[in-house]
Write a structure and sequence with these properties.
The structure is a single chain. The radius of gyration is 16 Å and the shape is globular. The longest helix has 21 residues. The protein is α+β, with helices and mostly antiparallel strands. A two-stranded antiparallel sheet has the order 1-2. Strands 3-4 form a two-stranded antiparallel ribbon. A hairpin with a 5-residue loop joins β3 and β4.
Length: 115
């Protein structure tokens, strides 16, 4: 029911049709933190933002929703997959790196076996 009222970003004109959109976004955020340590909510808002259609006026870039990103990061912190970076932002923990590597290997091996 929540998905009918929530957009993934300000630039979206409709809500998402996928029930698992929040889990997909959380996994994507974990991957971003894995690749770039010390990334914060503001930088992630820029990354996940997009072009907003302003009608006859030229399009502009808008940042993504901070609420969705913040709640996903808090959930990852509660699961002990990421932690706060000493210089600001978030960093991946050893448990988070281990889990991400394990899942990536499983996906890679399953895609290799289907070919």
């Amino acid at each position: 029911v929540y998905r009918y009222y929530t957009q993934e970003a300000v630039v979206s004109t409709q809500s998402t049709g996928d029930n698992n959109w929040f889990y997909i976004r959380t996994a994507a955020l974990l991957r971003r933190v894995y690749l770039k340590q010390g990334v914060g909510c503001g930088a992630l808002r820029k990354i996940y933002g997009g072009r907003i259609n302003r009608g006859a006026a030229p399009s502009h870039h808008k940042k993504a929703s901070a609420s969705v990103i913040r709640h996903a990061l808090k959930g990852l912190e509660e699961m002990k997959l990421i932690a706060k970076h000493p210089d600001g932002g978030r960093m991946i923990t050893s448990a988070g790196r281990r889990d991400a590597d394990r899942i990536a290997f499983q996906v890679m091996s399953s895609s290799m076996s289907t070919e």
